[in-house]
């Protein structure tokens, strides 16, 4: 079975054996999203080079979007630890490859009075490695889809981004789908894990409702990032 694994990451399986990767954690301390909006202006950044400031501003566009898709909220954010290895592992069968990560953030999203809906990771690649990273993650999604007949793979593009979505054909297990969004301009790979919860703790009840909500989330997120990037250039 195909898998995408970070260090210490595990897989989840539903009753029928369909398996999708589960996200790994970032820093052990989780911060409220509102408390880190001013992160780029912190004292630690005051001595940063112009290049570092530009890179930080680019990443902020990817991790400070919420209120879209019917009111989904970013409820927590944490940053990839500075001491973390500058890569993550992607594997299928006996084959494992490394995807570079020079900076990264994780955002948890949920709807009011529900548990987690989405776990989003925005990670910037090493400029010298981005094209190879893109090849690896695109191959990984295709491999996962071909190995599991209970998943559907779709491609999309728009607003300067390309991406893929892998979706289970029915509700089950803890992960219902994964979307990855690629920015050639920013050298950023966004991976979004869409989570399942008990019916009383989620914003959807049927598979069709989940797909519609997921599509609204991806569309709204891409639109938000594109607008924030455009505003930063003014």
Brief write-up:
The protein is of the alpha+beta class and 234 residues long. It is built from three helices and twelve strands; from the N terminus they run βββαβββββαββββα.
Question: What features would you describe in this structure?
Answer:
With 234 residues, this protein is of the alpha+beta class. The protein is built from 3 helices and 12 strands; from the N terminus they run βββαβββββαββββα. Strands 4-7-8-12-11-10-9 form a 7-stranded antiparallel sheet, sandwiched between helices. Strands 1-5-6 form a 3-stranded antiparallel sheet, covered by helices on one side. A hairpin with a 5-residue loop joins strand 7 and strand 8 (116-124). The radius of gyration is 17 Å and the shape is globular. The model is unreliable at 1-19 and 27-48 (pLDDT under 50).
Question: Any low-confidence stretches, pLDDT <50, length ≥5?
Answer: 1-19, 27-48
Question: What percentage of residues falls in helices of 4 or more residues?
Answer: 10-25%
Q: How many helical stretches?
A: 3
The Cα radius of gyration reads: 17 Å
What is the spatial order of strands in the main beta sheet? 4-7-8-12-11-10-9
Main β-sheet description: 7 strands, antiparallel
Q: Label the structural class.
A: alpha+beta
The percentage of residues in β strands lies in 25-35%
Average residue pLDDT: 82
Please tally the β strands and state the result. 12
Outline: globular
Distance, first to last CA: 47 Å
Topology of this structure?
Elements lengths: L1 E3 L6 E3 L5 E3 L28 H14 L9 E7 L7 E6 L2 E6 L2 E8 L5 E9 L5 H18 L3 E8 L2 E8 L6 E9 L4 E8 L11 H26 L2
Antiparallel strand pairs: 1-5, 2-3, 4-7, 5-6, 7-8, 8-12, 9-10, 10-11, 11-12
């Amino acid at each position: 079975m195909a898998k995408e694994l970070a260090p210490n990451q595990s897989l989840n399986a539903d009753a029928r054996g369909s398996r999708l990767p589960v996200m790994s954690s970032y820093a052990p301390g989780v911060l409220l999203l509102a408390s880190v909006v001013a992160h780029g202006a912190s004292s630690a950044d005051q001595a940063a080079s112009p290049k570092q400031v530009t890179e930080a501003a680019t990443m902020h566009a990817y991790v400070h979007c919420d209120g879209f898709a019917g009111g989904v909220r970013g409820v927590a954010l944490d940053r990839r630890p500075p001491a973390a290895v500058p890569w993550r592992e992607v594997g299928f069968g006996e084959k494992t490859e490394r995807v570079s990560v020079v900076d990264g953030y994780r955002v948890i999203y949920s709807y009011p009075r529900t548990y987690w809906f989405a776990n989003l990771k925005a990670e910037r690649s090493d400029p010298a490695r981005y094209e190879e990273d893109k090849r690896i993650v695109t191959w990984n999604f295709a491999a996962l889809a071909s190995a599991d007949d209970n998943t559907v793979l779709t491609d999309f593009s728009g607003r300067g981004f390309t991406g893929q979505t892998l979706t289970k054909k029915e509700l089950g297990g803890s992960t219902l789908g994964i979307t990855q969004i690629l920015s050639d301009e920013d050298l950023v790979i966004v991976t979004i894990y869409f989570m399942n919860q008990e019916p009383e703790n989620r914003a959807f009840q049927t598979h069709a409702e989940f797909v519609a909500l997921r599509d609204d989330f991806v569309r709204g997120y891409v639109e938000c990032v594109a607008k924030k990037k455009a505003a930063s250039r003014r």
